């Protein structure tokens, strides 16, 4: 069905947009590198492909006059999702252009901002590209070459968005959200214990982390203790009997 | 989708934020491994995160680089923290630089307060949704309010916001632990700067945006030159005052009003804008019974001050009533009413004033010289707003030179001075300040204030002016008896 296809494609675009944002945030900091620039380029290209695919599909669906009112409302909702994604992507691309220009990599006195992030962003990019491992094959001066391409791509995206505005007549404010406030709490993957511990470090309440950690430890200790007791009991029973 | 068809009239130029580019250069200099700020590692329970800097190191570096003293360096460091280029790791809500061993870290360039990137509410909504997921629904009070507001007015984008928040959250989990911690701290610091918690002041408050980019070169069209020529011609025609005279006047003004300015001096009992306590405003209402000592002092500075303050004017009116020269003030007030009043009632008002004050044998006849009387009577044939200006000025100078001096020595004024209240300064604790902030209410509506003013005026008019003929006739009757 057209709707399900649309939804999966929109989910994919959403995922790529989120990953792109994470990558752009790492630009200019100490986790910046050749690899990051290449990851940005690849993610961007994938985002654009998805965007074009989404657009053709959605415009085809919306232009169809013979759909029911409910269907049309649903397609309008999907359209609003698509345009919001595109806006975020547009802003992130423009910002990555600016930050990329301000922080070139191949300069002798390179000053990247010491933000405390030192790890690589390969896993994020792999998630965006839906692959297991990322392959890096770009040449040394990707940062300057890429920027020119980036400018042309930004122009393309701007043009696409203008066309979309002109051609598709959807009133975005008329769309009603399906999710209610606090919907994000319901269907997320359960937050693991380790990440709860990590995040509470940030909250200046080291007591919480310590408690969380020692709580776990306590549980383990209790289990081991009971096991030892059981073994001791069994041995004692055997000794008494034998 | 945000509406993009509206032409951008360049309303994004923030003139006071030209300092941002300069601060960015300073931050870049700080990164130099040899000459920059020394960095340490932050040790948390399980992880260690590099690139933490202490407050005292920052202050020392700035003082060294700009050759200033420690206090100035600390102020500059606080500015950098307030803008969001450096964020504190402990006590993250207070954006100040503490010159001790408290730790700070640099913000990533994406989250710098750049001039042309507007802070979008969509991003804030996504951030709040992510925080909601992490804190399992336990947001702080102000965050919860913002969340509800955004849900109401960004409802059409809400599905997108939820989807994007979940995806960003999952993408964030792909990174290693220390990076995740740093990212959370960065994002939180960014939003403390741009959506400050209640009771804090934001450095990003810069006033109105400008229509025109002040840094852009203007094209030299004939229109531009015409404007420049007009401007210079007007400059030449302006009357000039010797700088010694104008500076002398400025100095006199500042020395007199120095202690009365709430920005330069402490405001008693406490400035409502800082402590959210409105005692200062209630004590200084226009029609309060007992004015404050500062207010009474201001009446002694000049006659204008006395007349402009409604309470002062009421006091003066009382004094004049005792002296039986209330007609001067009444005439002056009537002229003001004519100048500022509605255009349709102007003719009747002018006629009324003439009958009451200016005509020969009028009940409240004022004493002005012949020439002014001539001009005024001639002007009243074709009345307009400023027809009584000459007479009003004459009466004003009369009151200023004569009655004002006597008023300041009179028992009425001395009584008011004695009764004036000098409130004590408030001393609020942190919790009391928070309570005050929660109890903030809007002040009286201007409609109600205007109604009160009108009632006052009606009461005054109804109490009847004591005119000289009535008093004279009373005296005569007394003498007869």
UniProtKB/TrEMBL annotation, chain A:
Keywords for the protein's UniProt record, in alphabetical order: Membrane, Signal transduction inhibitor, Transmembrane, Transmembrane helix
GO biological-process terms attached to the record: negative regulation of signal transduction
Transmembrane segments: 219-240
Domain of life from the UniProt record: Eukaryota
Family recorded in the similarity comment: Belongs to the RGS7BP/RGS9BP family.
Name of this chain's protein: Regulator of G protein signaling 9 binding protein
Organism the protein comes from: Sinocyclocheilus grahami
TrEMBL record, chain B:
SUPFAM superfamilies, A to Z: Regulator of G-protein signaling, RGS, Transducin (heterotrimeric G protein), gamma chain, Winged helix' DNA-binding domain
PROSITE patterns in UniProt: DEP, RGS
GO CC, alphabetical: cytoplasm; neuron projection; plasma membrane
Bilayer topology: Peripheral membrane protein
Domain of life the protein comes from: Eukaryota
Annotated protein name in UniProt: Regulator of G-protein signaling 9
Keyword Membrane belongs to the record: yes
Domain DEP: 33-108
GO annotation terms (biological process): G protein-coupled receptor signaling pathway; intracellular signal transduction; negative regulation of signal transduction; regulation of G protein-coupled receptor signaling pathway; visual perception
Record's keyword annotation contains Chaperone: no
Main location: membrane
Organism, as annotated: Sinocyclocheilus grahami (Dianchi golden-line fish)
Subcellular location: Membrane
Lineage: Eukaryota, Metazoa, Chordata, Craniata, Vertebrata
GO molecular function: GTPase activator activity
């Amino acid at each position: 069905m057209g709707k399900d296809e649309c939804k999966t494609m929109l989910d994919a675009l959403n995922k790529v947009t989120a990953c792109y944002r994470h990558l752009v945030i790492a630009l200019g900091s100490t986790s910046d590198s050749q690899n990051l620039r290449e990851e940005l380029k690849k993610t961007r290209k994938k985002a654009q492909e998805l965007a074009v695919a989404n657009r053709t599909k959605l415009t085809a669906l919306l232009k169809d006059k013979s759909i029911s009112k409910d269907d049309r409302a649903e397609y309008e909702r999907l359209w609003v999702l698509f345009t919001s994604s595109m806006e975020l992507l547009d802003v992130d691309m423009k910002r990555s252009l600016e930050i990329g220009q301000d922080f070139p990599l191949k300069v002798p006195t390179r000053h990247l901002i010491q933000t405390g992030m030192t790890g690589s962003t390969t896993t994020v990019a792999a998630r965006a590209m839906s692959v297991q491992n990322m392959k890096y094959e770009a040449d040394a001066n990707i940062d300057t070459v890429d920027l020119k391409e980036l400018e042309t791509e930004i122009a393309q995206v701007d043009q696409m968005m203008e066309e979309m505005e002109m051609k598709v007549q959807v009133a975005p404010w008329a769309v009603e959200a399906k999710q209610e406030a606090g919907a994000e709490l319901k269907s997320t993957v359960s937050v693991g214990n380790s990440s709860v511990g990590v995040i509470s470090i940030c909250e200046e309440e080291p007591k919480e982390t310590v408690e969380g950690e020692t709580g776990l430890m306590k549980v383990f200790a209790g289990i081991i203790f009971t096991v030892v007791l059981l073994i001791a009991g069994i041995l004692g029973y055997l000794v008494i009997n034998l | 989708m945000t509406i993009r068809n509206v032409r951008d009239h360049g309303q994004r130029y923030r003139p006071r934020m030209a300092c941002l580019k300069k601060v960015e250069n300073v931050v870049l200099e700080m990164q130099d491994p040899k000459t920059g700020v020394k960095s340490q590692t932050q040790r948390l329970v399980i992880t260690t995160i590099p690139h933490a800097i202490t407050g005292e190191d920052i202050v020392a570096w700035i003082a060294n680089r700009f050759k200033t003293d420690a206090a100035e360096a600390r102020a500059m460091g606080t500015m950098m923290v307030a803008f969001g280029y450096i964020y504190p790791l402990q006590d993250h809500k207070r954006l100040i630089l503490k010159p001790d061993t408290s730790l700070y870290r640099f913000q990533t360039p994406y989250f710098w307060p750049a001039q042309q990137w507007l802070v979008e509410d969509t991003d804030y909504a996504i951030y709040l949704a992510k925080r909601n997921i992490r804190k399992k629904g336990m947001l702080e009070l102000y965050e919860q309010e913002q969340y509800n507001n955004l849900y109401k007015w960004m409802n059409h984008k809400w599905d997108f916001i939820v989807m994007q928040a979940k995806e960003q959250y999952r993408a964030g989990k792909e990174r290693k632990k220390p990076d995740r911690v740093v990212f959370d701290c960065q994002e939180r610091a960014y939003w403390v700067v741009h959506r400050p918690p209640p009771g804090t002041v934001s450095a990003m408050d810069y006033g109105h945006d400008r229509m025109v980019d002040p840094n852009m070169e203007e094209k030299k069209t004939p229109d531009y030159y015409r404007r420049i020529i007009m401007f210079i011609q007007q400059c030449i025609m302006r009357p000039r005052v010797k700088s010694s005279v104008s500076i002398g006047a400025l100095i006199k003004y500042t020395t007199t009003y120095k202690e009365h300015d709430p920005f330069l001096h402490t405001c008693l009992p406490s400035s409502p804008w800082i402590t959210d306590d409105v005692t200062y405003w209630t004590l200084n209402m226009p029609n309060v019974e007992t004015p404050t000592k500062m207010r009474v002092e201001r009446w002694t500075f000049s006659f204008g001050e006395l007349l402009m303050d409604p309470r002062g004017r009421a006091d003066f009116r009382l004094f004049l009533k005792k002296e039986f020269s209330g007609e001067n003030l009444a005439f002056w007030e009537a002229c003001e009413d004519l100048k500022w009043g509605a255009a349709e009632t102007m003719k009747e008002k002018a006629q009324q004033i003439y009958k009451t004050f200016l005509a020969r044998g009028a009940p409240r006849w004022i004493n002005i010289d012949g020439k002014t009387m001539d001009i005024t009577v001639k002007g009243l044939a074709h009345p307009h707003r400023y027809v009584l200006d000459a007479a009003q000025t004459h009466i004003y100078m009369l009151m200023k030179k004569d009655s004002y001096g006597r008023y300041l020595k009179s028992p009425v004024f001395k009584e008011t001075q004695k009764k004036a209240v000098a409130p004590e300064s408030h001393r609020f604790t942190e919790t009391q300040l928070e309570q005050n902030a929660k109890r903030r209410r809007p002040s009286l509506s201007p409609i109600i204030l205007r109604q009160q003013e009108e009632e006052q005026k009606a009461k005054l008019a109804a109490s009847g002016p004591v005119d000289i003929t009535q008093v004279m006739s009373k005296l005569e009757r007394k003498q007869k008896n």
